[in-house]
Amino acid sequence: MQDQLNERSVALYIKAGKLTGLVLAQAMRAFLKRARASPKAAHGHQSVKSLTKQGASLMSAEVSGDNIGDFKKTARKYNVDFAVKRDDSESPPKWIVFFKSKDGAAMDAAFKEYSRQKIRAKEKTALLTKLAKFKEISKQIAAPVKNRHRGERDI
Fold first, then answer.
1. For the CA atoms of 65, 69, 72, 77, what is the dihedral angle to 10 degrees?
2. Which of 22, 95, 116, 124 is the most buried (most CB within 10 A)?
3. Taking Cα atoms as reference points, which of 118, 117, 42, 53 lies closest to residue 80?
4. Does domain 48-141 sit in CATH 3.40.1000?
5. What is the pLDDT of residues 114-123, one digit of tens each?
């Protein structure tokens, strides 16, 4: 019980000629206004510098490809604090994703979903190319019906 009271108590120093209820109320309003406006830790996508300022140990993983935006959407969905940095030393460039070690399980889930999305996209394009190929073959096999005069057909 005593610990809870210590966590909730506030020390307020007021320098005034005469302490009235109005002066105390104004001081409390000013204190609460500053307390609400204090900067809070950023969440989601942020810079590497702001991620290191939060004091947690960082982990990293490499992501290749130009569609890093898809990964950002997935990571935001899992509420992961992360930072993305581009590594131009290699060709094609790779992306390094930094995240807090406490978000490791959520990051694993985000990577799994991201990889599933990429595999589905590749399968979908492969299926569409096969479908276009079979359309061309079927057009070549079936002769077009040209003349329909009095119920007759040319085959």
1. -120
2. 95
3. 42
4. no
5. 878 878 777 7
User: What integer pLDDT is reported at residue 135 of this predicted model?
Assistant: 86
pLDDT category of residue 37 using cuts at 50, 70 and 90: confident
- Nearest by Cα to 45 from 69, 22, 26: 69
Tokens for 41, please give them.
Answer: 């830790």
22 Cα distance to chain centroid? 47
The SS3 call for residue 2 is helix
Place of tokens 């996209």: 121
Q: How far is CA 69 from CA 77, 149, 154, in A?
A: 13, 58, 55
Question: CA dihedral defined by 47, 49, 55, 59, rounded to 10 degrees?
Answer: 60
